[in-house]
Write a structure and sequence with these properties.
The protein has 392 residues and is α+β, with helices and mostly antiparallel strands. The protein has two domains: 138 residues, 3-Layer(aba) Sandwich (Creatine Amidinohydrolase, Chain A, domain 1); 247 residues, Creatine Amidinohydrolase, CATH 3.90.230. The chain is 34% helix and 20% strand. The protein has a six-stranded mixed sheet with strand order 4-3-2-1-5-6. Strands 7, 8, 9, 10 and 17 form a five-stranded mixed sheet that branches. Helix 8 runs antiparallel to helix 9. It starts with a helix and ends with a strand.
Length: 392
């Protein structure tokens, strides 16, 4: 992508900001690189560069002499530096005070946004600027889906549900035939189905049986996996996107049981997670319908309260959801009041997961769905699991 400067300036004025200062050193700020369109252009970028978009007027770039053309594709005035004194003078000439957004998070609260080092923030502040977080600006210009992205997400979501159904059917068939089946074998079958469906991902899916389902980030490998036995919980977590430019991810989790009747213990714990999920969905849907501003921490709190009240608070050890984008963990708002306190707003056009889980040493459950927020409505982009699936 390459930023639309006029659109950024409109957003800056709406937010009461004087400018957005993009900065990167040797790939340290992937957000700035993406917004500036550098990742699609190639070439070396081993020196510090700055690009200031003011709320009004002409943008300004500050680039190193040996990489003086790195921002030539962007509009505005250019300054070139070589030594550190020229760098300091060039930065001082760009910055005249005011409230500047940077990839900064007070106290490092949101590490996805906290990309600019403390020393650089200090240097900008010494020049008279007040540095504020660019978190909501990043959402507008990197995390908001257009119509094509939403359509590709829906396609990916539908494909993931088909793969999930095939995986459960595969396990069920082996169980009915009294044949051995392992986590790794199911995972590798799912990887082949990803290729058939035209999906790509950054990882093979999670296939976790019984005690492994109690580990939220368990992945079977050749060195560490187990057979799937009868009368066991099986958790599937799979994420992928279409193999197309600007495609965004879908990410789902379902829980099955390799028996004919799901024990009450598993069913009741899953029921709590389901109610927590639905509480979060209801909050998002109501806020979108009423046009009410909603922040990520509030969504997490809605789900977490249900689980806390059921006595399982200590077993819910991660946030309620994450942003979805061209990376599975996108740069938009996360549904989080646990790992962080995410005060970013749920902006129209953004997509994210809702995925409460409850984990014990002997088993775990999670129910994960995807949501997209529109101007006056929010939608869940796939079926919601209502109970643990009995596979035999």
């Amino acid at each position: 992508m390459v930023i639309d400067v006029s659109a950024v300036q409109d957003a800056l004025r709406e937010e009461g900001l004087d400018g957005w200062l993009l900065y990167d050193f040797h790939g340290s700020n992937p957000i700035a690189r993406t917004v500036a369109g550098l990742d699609d252009r190639g070439g070396l970028t081993t020196r510090r560069w700055y690009y200031l978009i003011p709320a009004g007027g002409e943008p300004q770039a500050l680039v190193h002499r040996i990489e003086r053309h790195v921002l030539d594709h962007l509009p505005g005035r250019r300054r070139v530096y070589a030594g550190r004194e020229q760098l300091e003078a060039g930065l001082a000439a760009m910055i005249g005070g005011g409230r500047l957004a940077m990839e900064y998070s007070p106290g490092g609260a949101i590490p996805y946004v906290s990309r600019v080092d403390a020393g650089t923030v200090d240097a900008v502040r010494r020049l008279g600027a007040t540095v504020v977080s660019s978190g909501d600006l990043v959402q507008r210009f990197e995390a908001v889906w257009d119509d094509r992205a939403l359509a590709l997400h829906r396609e990916a979501s539908a494909a993931l549900y088909r793969i999930k159904d095939r995986a459960f059917a595969f396990i069920a068939a082996r169980m009915q035939a009294a044949a051995a089946v392992g986590e790794l074998e199911v995972q590798q079958a799912m990887c082949a189905w990803f290729e058939e469906e035209g999906l790509v991902s950054d990882s093979a899916p999670v296939v976790a049986a019984q005690e492994n389902s109690g580990n939220p980030h368990y992945l079977p490998t050749a060195a560490s996996s187990r057979a799937i036995g009868r009368d066991e919980v099986v958790l599937l977590d799979l994420w992928g996107k279409r193999d197309a430019a600007a495609a965004v991810f879908a990410d789902i989790t379902w829980v099955g049981y390799t028996g004919a009747s799901v024990p009450e213990r598993y069913a009741s714990v899953f029921g709590v997670a389901r109610v927590a999920r639905d509480a979060a969905v209801a909050l998002v849907s109501e806020a979108a319908r009423k046009g009410r501003e909603l922040r990520g921490w509030e969504v997490d709190r809605a789900a977490r309260t249900v689980i806390d009240d059921a006595g399982f608070g200590l077993q819910f050890v991660h946030r309620t959801g994450h942003s979805l984008g061209e990376e599975v963990h996108g740069n938009g708002v996360h549904m989080d009041d646990y790992e962080t306190h995410d005060e970013r707003r749920l902006l129209p056009g953004t997509g994210f997961t809702i995925e409460p889980g409850i984990y014990f040493d002997e088993f775990g459950v999670r129910t994960e769905i995807n949501m997209h927020v529109g101007r006056r409505a929010a939608e869940v982009t796939g079926p919601l699991q209502q109970e643990v699936v009995a596979l035999c």
